[in-house]
Amino acid sequence: QPVLGILGGGQLARMLALAAAPLGVKVLVVDTAADACAGQVAPLRIADWTDFAALEKFAADVDVVTFDFENVPADTAHWLAERAAVFPNPRALAVAQDRLAEKTLFRECGLQTPAFEPVDTREGLDRALATIGAPSILKTRRLGYDGKGQFRIKQLSDADAAWNALGANAHGLILEAFVPFERELSVLAVRTRDGDFRIWPLTQNWHTEGVLSLSLAPAPDVGALQSRAEALARTLAERLDYVGVFALELFVKDGQLLGNEMAPRVHNSGHWTIEGAVTSQFENHVRAVLGLPLGDTSARGFSAMFNWIGELPDATPVLSTVDGHWHDYGKQSRPGRKVGHATVCAQDANVLAERVGDIARALKREEQAAPGIGALSG
Ligand code: ATP
Ligand code: MG
Ligand code: MG
């Protein structure tokens, strides 16, 4: 029985483990936290990501290593790659960990991005602002997630406040033009060790305070953007010799795609694929990294995913909806934390809009759900 090692024990590791079980794949998870939510699969506890004594045992016990946590230090990924097969490869991981390297690669692959400039000093911020202007967003190059490590510069006089907030960051910063986008899409893609490549239908996403709150799939009215996104994701995957699932977050501006960032792992905007696609992102990731054939990435119908942030709402409205599915990650409530999600599916877009609307009203989430409902029925 092959053993899949997963670095990081959050909800992504848990959903990977759930998908691995019927494939006859055993999972071994490592994490630095005692309360990692993939707890059902008994994570191996390590002190930190350079705890090579504990990782030595992990590496000896697994056949293939993959990631739930994308910020594993590059040195640790390289060290593991000398002892086990690591997918995605450490170079792909390193590019995705650095917003500057990532956006530079996007452009090399023909994917436009918001205007950006690296920023390392206070004077450098002024120089970058002279080029990019305002509104813009100052971001840490590394380790940001859920909108953390970002400062929105509304006018040039915000420069001091932005520098005070982020200037101490040791890994450098990037200033990006603020894009007044029409909508946000993501493409979930998967590539095997043999180069077989597939994407799921594009997903449309809405964020609240920098955190994903709602996804709809297939994204309505994408037209030629589907094949454009597929070509770009394929080029990127081939350049990185990428193996496994990744997500590419995109802005649509004037009908054109701009690359925001990539996630070198399964992604929150692909959770709908568990119930809404023929093969889920989790199953195809496990298949890809273990050298198994991929499953079909077609949608079964229409799906919407609500993210539960901070604390779980009452499950009853979702559980009493036809084709409604509940996912409790078993985490402690904490402001801003992703503690669960729900997916609702339907064969018809209007039926899905009704189901989403009913749940949103019951949970008083109408504001967040409203744009999604509009997109569905329009
Ligand atoms: P994630 O949790 O997706 O990893 P993150 O912390 O890495 O998030 P981003 O994806 O860079 O952050 O930004 C979060 C959200 O903020 C984006 O999905 C988008 O809604 C908004 N945003 C980020 N950059 C820009 C930009 N240049 N212009 C307009 N909106 C932006
Ligand atoms: Mg990110
Ligand atoms: Mg993002």
UniProtKB/TrEMBL annotation:
Keywords: ATP-binding, Ligase, Nucleotide-binding, Purine biosynthesis
UniProt key word Chaperone: no
Reactions the enzyme catalyzes: 5-amino-1-(5-phospho-beta-D-ribosyl)imidazole + hydrogencarbonate + ATP = 5-carboxyamino-1-(5-phospho-D-ribosyl)imidazole + ADP + phosphate + 2 H(+)
InterPro entries noted in UniProt: ATP-grasp, ATP-grasp_carboxylate-amine, ATP_grasp_subdomain_1, PreATP-grasp_dom_sf, PurK, PurK_C, PurT/PurK_preATP-grasp, Rudment_hybrid_motif
Enzyme Commission code(s) on record: 6.3.4.18
Pfam families noted in UniProt: ATP-grasp (PF02222), PurK_C (PF17769), RS_preATP-grasp-like (PF22660)
Class of enzymatic activity (EC top level): ligase
Residue span, ATP-grasp domain: 103-290
GO biological-process terms attached to the record: 'de novo' IMP biosynthetic process
Binding site for ATP: 99, 139, 144-150, 176-179, 184, 207, 260-261
Single GO MF descriptor: 5-(carboxyamino)imidazole ribonucleotide synthase activity
Description of how the protein assembles with itself and partners: Homodimer.
Classification via HAMAP family: PurK
Biological role stated in the UniProt entry: Catalyzes the ATP-dependent conversion of 5-aminoimidazole ribonucleotide (AIR) and HCO(3)- to N5-carboxyaminoimidazole ribonucleotide (N5-CAIR).
Protein's name according to its UniProt entry: N5-carboxyaminoimidazole ribonucleotide synthase
Gene that this polypeptide is encoded by: purK
